[in-house]
Amino acid sequence: MVTDRNGLRGQLVERFDRTTDGGLLRLALEDAAQVLDLPPASKYAVSSEEVVLALAGPCKARAVAVRNLYLQFVFAWLTGNGDLHAKNAAVLEGGRGGWTVAPVYDIPCTLLYGDDTMALTVSGKVKNLKAKHWQEFAASIGLPERAAAAANKSALAAAQTVNLAALPFAGLPLNGAERELRHRRGELSG
Questions:
Q1: Where are the domains of the chain?
Q2: Burial 61-81 (b: 16+ CB within 10 A, else e)
């Protein structure tokens, strides 16, 4: 965390699309809208399944890419991020060529603003997701059951570290978001 000259706090992050191995190297980043040849305005016009399959396609380790993208979507749901659309999921070109899934970015908790939906459909739904929808999603993208269960476990562990109370919200928005996240975590953990 950093504080600017006006006393406002923010998070300083390191760019993942740059490397300084003997000089500055800019790595190519292709988001799902670009890979699917969609204009930015159509970033909500695809499903999570379409995003995963399109982004995993150019990756050398396709199975790993599918698992990592599944993990990004399930983590978004577990943390109340309803903004994981086709411009916020991407692949990154490695320094030696080849593509990998880009680290997750732009991860707001939209529950705090009254939005309890996912940006893209998961197994045909944007809200009221249940464990069965995540199982269907995993199957539709070719993620084996055991790999999906392991990803769910990892996402649940990471989501437990999220502390919404550290954000500048109180009362109903905070209490409602925390209640919904507890429900989602309980739903996925069975």
A1: 17-188
A2: eeeebbbbbbbbbbbbbbbbb
Q: How confident is the model at residue 94 (pLDDT cuts 50, 70, 90)?
A: confident
Residue 19: phi, psi to the nearest 5? -140, 150
Q: Sign (positive/negative) of CA torsion 43, 47, 49, 50? A: negative
Residues whose CB falls within 8 Å of the CB of residue 88, separated by 6 or more in sequence, listed in order? 31, 43, 105, 106, 119
Q: Average pLDDT for residues 67-81, to the nearest whole number?
A: 98
CA distance 134 to 137: 5
The DSSP letter of residue 160 is T
CA–CA gap between residue 189 and residue 130 (Å, rounded): 11
Neighbours of 8 (CB within 10 A): 8
Name the band, by pLDDT with cuts 50, 70 and 90, for residue 31. very high
- Say how far apart CA 109 and CA 7 lie, in whole Å: 23
Report, as an integer, the average pLDDT of 153-174: 92
Fold classified for 17-188:
1.10.1070
CA dist 34 and 22 (Å) reads 30
pLDDT above 90: percentage of residues in the chain:
75
Q: What is the pLDDT of residue 55?
A: 98
